[in-house]
Design goal:
By secondary structure, the chain is mainly alpha-helical. It has helices spanning about 5-15, 15-40, 55-100, 110-145, 155-175, 200-205, 215-220, 230, 235-250, 255-265, 270-275, 280-290; strands at about 180-185, 190-195, 225, 305. A four-stranded mixed beta sheet has the order 3-2-1-4. A hairpin with a 4-residue loop joins β1 (about 180-185) and β2.
């Protein structure tokens, strides 16, 4: 791996974490956009209350709503572009790794130079996006934080009441949660439903209380994913998931994780969703042993269900 320069190796090191962070930011922005739309839709343009509002105030409110909606769309656009660029560079680095492994005498200097230029451009774009998104976020938050007309006195008490209700409701929901020992890959729903334990759900709720309000928030954001993440570029998906398994779940070094990912990425007999679903390398090794001995029924950690569309 001596042909990998510092910049591109550093770029690969935390690839899964960085992609998840951007993806999470896109999801949060989507929720805010839904809130903006919901807030605007609550205004009864034909009702009596709106007639009591001064025209200047109403105009100010409409302008604020338009700016907020435009801003949240710009945030999503910037983040999506960032994620696409990131994926493209990652793909080119992995393709270089594959080429170099198959062609030992390959001169990769020019390709590495181009990749490093892309990384430099990406970082500049990322920096500019953060500056822009900070400005856009301020406009969005200002709009969402505006108190509803005629409800100034109720908001604080309602928020306190909702906090208490949410805490009780969250505990009630946790009582209903059980370990999900099933990996379900659904072509019909275009979703992958990963296995999880009750302890994992509780850990997310305790460690990230601002991001996850209910167990269902954790499940939908962390354990239900789009199937295209895995089947669009299977080799790249195996690389990502294997690296994440070693680096983030096993807490191994970046070098060891990269070597492990490179060993797994060419295993076309292993569906990338399996690597995403296992909790440890031991579980993955157990799956591989069962696979190679043609005894998948002996794999004990979770059930595997593939829902394939009819031909």
């Amino acid at each position: 791996m001596d042909y990998l320069l510092g910049k591109d190796f550093e770029f690969l090191k935390d690839t899964n974490t960085r992609q998840e962070e951007v993806d999470f930011e896109i999801k949060k922005a989507g929720i805010k956009r839904d809130k903006i739309i919901e807030t605007i839709q609550k205004i009864d343009v034909n009702g009596e209350e709106i007639k009591k509002i001064h025209p200047n105030e109403l105009e100010d409110y409409v302008n604020s709503a338009e700016k907020a909606f435009e801003s949240i769309n710009n945030i999503i656009r910037n983040l999506t572009k960032e994620l696409d660029e990131f994926n493209q560079i990652e793909k080119e680095i992995v393709e270089l790794v594959i080429k170099k492994d198959s062609e030992k005498d390959l001169d990769a200097k020019e390709t590495v130079k181009n990749i490093n230029n892309q990384i430099a451009n990406f970082k500049n774009m990322q920096k500019e996006n953060r500056i822009q998104n900070k400005k856009y976020s301020k406009l969005v938050d200002q709009f969402l934080q505006r108190e509803e007309i005629g409800k100034n006195a109720e908001i604080t008490s309602k928020n306190k009441e909702n906090t208490i209700v949410n805490t009780v409701y969250q505990k009630y929901e946790m009582d209903e949660i059980e370990d999900n020992l099933e990996l379900r890959v659904s072509e019909r729903h275009k979703r992958v439903y990963l296995p999880y334990t009750k302890a994992e759900i509780e850990s997310f709720l305790n460690n990230y209380p601002e991001e996850y309000k209910t167990p269902q928030d954790v499940i939908s954001q962390e354990f239900i994913t789009d199937i295209s993440i895995y089947n669009k570029h299977p080799v790249l998906a195996r690389f990502r998931e294997a690296y994440s398994l070693s680096r983030n779940k096993e807490m191994k070094s970046a070098i060891d994780s990269l070597k492990f990912a490179m060993d797994i990425m060419f295993r076309s007999d292993i569906n990338p969703t399996i690597i995403a679903a296992v909790k440890s390398q031991q579980q993955l090794n157990s799956y591989i042993e069962c696979l190679e001995s043609n005894k998948l029924e002996n794999f004990k950690y979770f059930n595997i269900i593939f829902e394939v569309n009819p031909i």
